[in-house]
Design goal:
Elements lengths: L12 H12 L1 H8 L16 H34 E4 L2 E4 L3 H38 L8 H5 L3 H6 L3 H19 L1 H12 L3 H22 L3 H10 L2 H22 L1 H7 L4 H16 L6 H9 L1 H20 L4 H28 L6 H23 L3 H8 L13
Antiparallel strand pairs: 1-2
């Protein structure tokens, strides 16, 4: 299903940069969640901000869709490399796709387990102790999500995306092994359509599917069945983000789409800005009808955000840079470690009465530079690279996160 022109991730500098930026944006997003009005998070300040509420809506509109788009692109790229070998001047099927899936499970699963056991459980214990000592109803502990049937999501905290990526990897491997013929036929048909038609169809289908999944929660029997599994959020987010992962994977197969998504076009820029602005401007503490509209706009605004971010990324970061390379290298560690730092900083800042802007700024900077410092101190350690980056000591090679 390749286009006969193999590419390497190293030639597309801006995709690595954008992926790192999407991960690092998790820091101001989670810091803003502490203060955002009409927004529940693991810990909340008594001071709230409407501005930070709109900021969280803005970041949430595109950050993870962008990340999963790039994850899909690199997954297809690395699966293609593992599944083909060079024979003269052409590519022929290889027999190493199963190794790709094993590498993905190690690359994603080891940091998931290590971060969960070393950081998340300690973080949840601190939250519970704080809530008990201060009789605080604003701190979410494991007991509250258990009543909502979402215990797993509460314990996983910010690591849910690793679980989703493992699921996508398993499904991609199964599709490669079992449905290469139908996928090749589908690709041939898609090649006959214009890129504009493909994008319009994908946006429409993704919007309808995501609306369908969300509306399913309104069916009491289904909502209760999902709640009993304890995997409600994991199931829903895996379904919601699948279109973006698939789009990224297909952009590796058909580079016309990637070119279209990174090319400045006045009409596309205007449409993307309009839908993003409309979603972000919807008021907090709104009635259910406005919340439904906000969700309906999420998928179109996500595609618009993907377009704007990729276009800007290609314009400004499609070149080697020492600082960018350092940030890309550290971004995974920064994301894994930042959550506990944000929570501890939020607890500490509950004891003072600073302006929200000052507390938010301090929390963001501390949660950025402390994990980055950990990475700089430990990056030569084989133990650290394996448990928090999934890099096997015997390979000594950096594998893609996405």
């Amino acid at each position: 299903m390749t286009n006969g022109k193999p590419s390497t991730a190293s030639k597309i500098h801006y995709l690595d940069s954008v992926r790192a930026g999407a991960m690092v944006l998790g820091i101001p997003f989670h810091a803003a969640c502490v203060y955002a009005a009409d927004h529940e998070w693991v810990i909340k300040s008594q001071q709230t901000s409407i501005v930070l509420f709109h900021f969280t809506v803005f970041i949430h509109s595109f950050r993870m869709p962008v990340f999963f788009f790039i994850a899909g692109f690199f997954s297809a790229l690395t699966l293609g490399k593992a599944s083909t070998v060079q024979a003269g001047h052409s590519l022929v099927p290889g027999r190493h796709a199963h190794r790709w899936l094993g590498d993905r499970c190690v690359r994603l699963g080891v940091p998931l387990i290590a971060t969960f056991t070393c950081l998340n459980l300690a973080e949840l214990h601190v939250l519970k102790v704080w809530a008990t000592a201060h009789d605080s109803g604003s701190v979410i502990t494991l007991e509250q999500p258990r009543a909502q049937g979402d215990l797993f999501a509460a314990a996983a905290l910010h690591l849910w995306f690793l679980i989703t990526l493992i699921i996508y990897s398993a499904l991609a491997y199964a599709a490669y092994r079992l449905a290469r013929g139908p996928l090749a036929t589908l690709h041939a048909r898609c090649r006959r359509a214009s890129t504009g038609e493909l994008l319009a169809i994908l946006v429409a289908v993704a919007t309808m599917l995501n609306t369908f999944w969300r509306s399913m929660l309104l069916v009491p029997a289904l909502a209760q069945a999902l709640a009993l599994t304890g995997f409600t959020s994991t199931i829903l987010w895996t379904a919601f983000y699948a279109p973006f992962f698939l789009l990224g994977a297909y952009c590796h197969v058909d580079r016309r789409l990637l070119e279209r998504l990174t090319r400045p076009a006045p009409l596309a820029i205007a449409a993307s800005l309009v839908v993003l602005t409309l979603r972000v401007s919807l008021p907090a503490f709104a009635p259910r009808s406005v919340d439904a509209l906000r969700f309906a706009l999420w998928t179109p605004s996500a595609f618009g955000g993907i377009y704007l971010v990729l276009m800007l990324g290609r314009a400004f970061f499609d070149r080697p840079s020492t600082l960018t390379r350092e940030l890309v290298d550290a971004s995974f560690t920064i994301y894994l470690f930042h959550h506990v730092v944000v929570v501890l900083a939020a607890i500490a800042l509950l004891l003072v009465d600073w302006p929200i802007a000052a507390e938010f700024t301090v929390m963001t900077l501390v949660a950025l530079f402390m994990p980055w410092s950990v990475h700089l101190l430990c990056r030569r350690s084989a133990f650290y690279r394996f448990f928090f980056n999934g890099i096997r000591p015997e390979t000594g090679k950096r594998r893609q996160v996405a």
